[in-house]
TrEMBL record:
Family named by the database record: Belongs to the RecO family.
Keywords, ordered alphabetically: DNA damage, DNA recombination, DNA repair
SUPFAM superfamilies: ArfGap/RecO-like zinc finger, Nucleic acid-binding proteins
Gene3D superfamilies according to UniProt: Nucleic acid-binding proteins, Recombination protein O, C-terminal domain
Protein name: DNA repair protein RecO
Cross-referenced PANTHER family: DNA REPAIR PROTEIN RECO (PTHR33991:SF1)
One annotated Gene Ontology cellular component of this protein: bacterial nucleoid
Amino acid sequence: MERYDDDALVLSSVDYGESDRLVTLLTREHGKLTAFAAGARKSKRRFAGALEPFMRLRVHIVETRGSTVRLDGTDIVAGFYAAREDLSLIARALYAVELCRELTRDHEPQPELFALLESYLTRLDAKEAGPTSLLAFELSALAHAGLMPRFDSCSLCGGAPGERPRFDQAHGGAVCEPCGARARESVAVPVALLSGLRALQEGARTPLPPDLRARARGLLNVFIAHHLGRRLKSVDFMAQVGLD
Ligand SMILES: [Zn+2]
């Protein structure tokens, strides 16, 4: 059995059996791992508070025969404790880790996605990441997963989206009006929304006005749910705490 250490972010964690926990980690070198933490609920000392979502850890892993690995120990590198005191920041952090969990496959190294998530959580914890930052984070995470929505040209004909653009999640983003007439699920979107989202994809950090932000949230929810085949659970939690 091989042993190794890696940097990790906790994506989610569930109780298992009488006293154990199953933890989903995004590691820097080994990608997403499901790790079995034996006795995690009995021995408070061994994993003390480390297995909560969006903890940044150094993990000690033992490979096992199946696809699940064993978690032998953890050191907390960053707890993001300031973010944990604010419901809206918790909601955004839970959304970010759930999105990363759903966009990745087990054992596929994703060092850039790891760095992106770590950086987003660090800015969230420092109260430097507002609602537009979450949209920017999502667009980058989608790009890493090969699911980048298109906003600058029609996803069907490749032409300009035009003055009356539409958005169609099934075809991958913006569509021009003539193509939109053939895309059953497409919805009309403001030109300013497409250009705002395009600017975020290109790295702009200018906050979107609240009305466009709310529309952007809606489009990304539908786009992500379509490509993952289900709606993210944390979307509802964000809505409950009044976030777009
Ligand atoms: Zn078109």
